[in-house]
User: Fold Aminoglycoside phosphotransferase domain-containing protein from Rosellinia necatrix.
Amino acid sequence: MILKYAPQYAVITPDIPFTPERQEFEAFAMQELALVLFPLTSPTIVTLPRLIFHDRTNHILAMEDVGLDATNSEKKQETSTMSLKDLCRSSSITSNDINVADRVGTELGKFLFGLHQCGRGIGLAESDKLRETFVRNTAARQLDADTTFGGIMQSLDEFQVAYSANEKRILERLIQETSFEMMNNFETIIMGDFWYGNILLKFQTGAEPRDLTQIGVIDWEFTTCGPLFVDLAHFASEIWLQDRFHSDNGLASIANRRAAVSLFASYRACGGYIDCKKIALYIGGHVCCFLRFSNWTDDMEQRKTVAREAIDLMLAADSGNWTSVNDSLIRELFEL
Assistant:
């Protein structure tokens, strides 16, 4: 069992307030959303933690530990777990783990498409109740918009990135437009914090090569109604950062890229729409801001270079000049 306390600030930094009421939405996701979602995505090895209890007064959740090493009483198989993030950073990764990352991406793409279809109410009467609840999670939308777009210009100035007056005008417009859309476009139900650190992989212990038995998606406190590109872009943003700063990490680097590319391909294959422009805008904003929030490097010159790459991606997306985008991961994700 996992006990989770919700403080009055965001995990990434105590300087950013985040209401403990966010737990209401995480509890609702584990209980009500899961009941509606999994019949739509079955058969699947993707799961959510089971809610055990919710103490609203003290802001504490008790939930199933989907990452717990345990024994399957039916199959008599011991299991081991790791996050997708750890897999993509592991120094002991094997060539088979690239296939694991590929399968994880494929399964997550199907799952994410099912979530977005469910959240749009396509052929699903229960969707209205879910949407009525999650649309109230304005704090999650605001925090995501603030930490993706609100700090772009501050990051550029902090890292001493040069930009022209025209680029500043364009960026300020993009920040305003995209932040507004994230706050006011209730296209579907989004997980809101869909990144490789919130993906727990369960394997059969002792199996060689690794035998993936379950994928757990955790931390649903950001679940809200918003544009579907957010989940895709949030996942891709952290994969991009990992790829940019640790591209020389051998097989782990390949697995990292494969997880994202397979997710995008799977989402497309299900019939999902990849909005390259908006995803690129989000990636650029996320990278700019999280260079400050996360310790990817202490090298200020490298931060400056990467921040410039991030706004170049945003400017290219806005103009539609995709030929200027040379980043191989972006080109593969967008099938450019």
